[in-house]
Design brief:
It catalyses: D-glucose 6-phosphate + NADP(+) = 6-phospho-D-glucono-1,5-lactone + NADPH + H(+). With about 475 residues, this protein is of the alpha/beta class. Helices cover about 35% and strands about 20% of the residues. The structure holds NADP nicotinamide-adenine-dinucleotide phosphate.
């Protein structure tokens, strides 16, 4: 099968924070890949904007280094690299001052799609939005892209929404959650809503429980100060795991359009029950061998911030009443592995001599490090020896059937940026979704603070605190092993 790359219309993409880490590691290399794939042409412009005193040539050098470091294979194609760098421009702009704004006005064009990527800390959103307006750069068709963290609680998320809404309509705002840009996450929607096989079984009558795991092997690294203020709940669960939960649990939207999909996701968040204190386990990793522990890494010997959180959540609606959702995420765990596992119930009556709970269909959506979807089915173990059962995985990724070009799909950032240019908000969070997610998360965090609860220590390279295992054991269930 031949890969179908549909080119986007010419655009100007202004990257505020164009000299930052995100631009260097994700945005510029991602755009380069789309250029190589033929999705964006020579008429488009990428304009870096930041305070650092660079010019167009030195910004191109910066981008060349970024592409060579993070897209080394593609960067070997000198023609592609040269062509891509020619799209780049740079304007010195101070988001908080007056410098550079009239230069930016001259750098953008009126006759192409225009998007502003706010790849800066949220404290600058207000300044940027206000100055874009003041300099008449907030055209009705312009889009703005904002990064996580979108607030640190409900009040701050509401404030951010209000700030941006002063100058931009909701249809212009693209709140990025890069988990939604993953091929497999979208495939989950295709599998659920494009087939007859799954949806009739997709409810508490047939599904025993659902597990969501986002496990990281690394610690907080250089983000210690930020992470100590945030923690796993705010940094991962409120956004990434919540978005995955929504896609798994939502009702089929009437249409595949941005608002229909986001309306259904919002209903899931609003149907989440309050979480009881003993349904949540927090953990903090300890020092191991030559690796510093969490407190040392964040430079706060008294830190009570969690680097791990696990919980049992319930969705109170007709579809899910009685089906628990177990969520866990953490740093310095055994391996880097993220997956969603939909565990179906036992067949209602077994004609084979098998123990309950041993042979269950499990639909596994793997997100990291490799993406893929597998359905575990029970078959007869081949050969003589009677009717012995064995579970085998059916690979539903079908990379081989679709051919190598299809398997080489864009990474989440590049796909999402192309969606911004196309004006498709389906895979972006709407303001009310973000607020609803904080409204559910805030009381959990407030409860920890009121009770003065400290996180439980866990060994680096483990599966988290033992109490997290108990969270499932007490229900007669067990977590799947964390493995890549
Ligand atoms: P960073 O490395 O600290 O970069 C910040 C950028 O903002 C720099 O380009 C800086 O350039 C620019 N900047 C700061 N003050 C400015 C001002 N007054 N006017 C104009 N530009 C200004 O941060 P980052 O890691 O790239 O993160 C950017 C945003 O993405 C943050 O909100 C972060 O939370 C989010 N994010 C980052 C990652 C990641 O992997 N890095 C992942 C998810 C989300 P100058 O100093 O040259 O002005």
């Amino acid at each position: 099968m031949v890969s179908r790359v549909i080119p986007v219309d010419p655009f100007d993409l202004v990257i505020f924070g164009g000299t930052g880490d995100l631009a260097r590691r994700k945005i510029l290399p991602g755009l380069f890949r789309r250029f190589c794939a033929g999705q964006m042409g020579a008429e488009s412009r990428i304009i870096g904007a930041a305070r650092t005193d660079l010019n167009t040539q030195s910004y191109r050098d910066f981008a060349k280094d970024a592409v060579r470091e993070f897209e080394p294979g593609g960067a070997k194609n000198a023609k592609h690299l040269k062509g891509f760098l020619e799209l780049l421009d740079y304007v010195v702009v101070d988001a908080k001052g007056t410098q550079g704004w009239s230069d930016l006005t001259k750098a953008v064009r009126d006759d192409v799609i225009r998007a502003y990527y706010f790849s800066v800390g949220p404290s600058l959103f207000d300044d940027l939005a206000e100055r874009l307006h003041k300099h008449k750069l907030d055209c009705p068709g312009c889009r703005i892209v904002v990064e996580k963290p979108f607030g640190h609680d409900l009040a701050s998320a509401q404030e951010l929404n209000q700030i941006i809404a002063k100058y931009f309509d909701e249809h212009q705002i693209y709140r990025i959650d890069h988990y939604l840009g993953k091929e497999t996450v979208q495939n989950l929607m295709a599998i659920r809503f494009g087939n007859m096989l799954f949806e009739p079984l997709w409810n508490s009558q047939y599904i025993d429980h659902i597990q969501l795991t986002v496990a990281e092997e690394v610690g907080v690294g250089g983000r210690g100060e930020y992470y100590d203020r945030s923690g796993a709940m705010r940094d991962m669960l409120q956004n990434h795991l919540m978005q995955l939960l929504c896609l798994i649990a939502m009702e089929p939207p009437a249409k595949f359009n941005p608002d229909a999909v986001r309306d259904e996701k919002l209903k899931v968040i609003r149907a989440l029950d309050e979480v009881a204190p003993d349904d949540v386990v927090r953990g903090q990793y300890e020092a191991a061998h030559d690796q510093a522990g969490f407190r040392e890494q964040v430079g706060n010997p008294d830190s009570t911030t969690e680097s791990f959180v696990a919980m049992r959540a319930h969705i109170s609606n007709w579809r899910w009443a009685g089906t628990p959702f177990y969520l866990r995420t953490g740093k310095r765990l055994r391996e880097r592995a993220s997956e969603i596992a939909v565990v179906f119930k036992d067949a209602p009556h077994s004609i084979f001599d098998v123990e309950a709970g041993v042979h269950r269909n499990i639909l596994t959506i793997k997100l990291q490090p490799n993406e893929g979807i597998e359905l575990g089915v029970t078959i007869k173990e081949p050969g003589p020896g009677g009717m012995r059962l064995v579970d085998v995985p059916l690979d539903m990724t079908f990379a081989e059937a679709l051919g190598p070009e299809e398997a080489d799909f864009p990474d989440a950032y590049e796909r999402l940026i192309m969606d911004v240019i196309r004006g498709n908000q389906t895979l972006f969070m709407r303001g009310d979704e973000v607020e609803a997610a904080w409204a559910w998360t805030d009381p959990i965090i407030a409860g920890w603070q009121e009770r003065g609860e400290a996180p439980l220590p866990y060994a680096s390279g483990s599966s988290g605190p033992d109490d997290a295992l108990m969270l499932m054991h007490r229900d007669g269930r067990r977590w799947r092993e964390i493995k890549a």
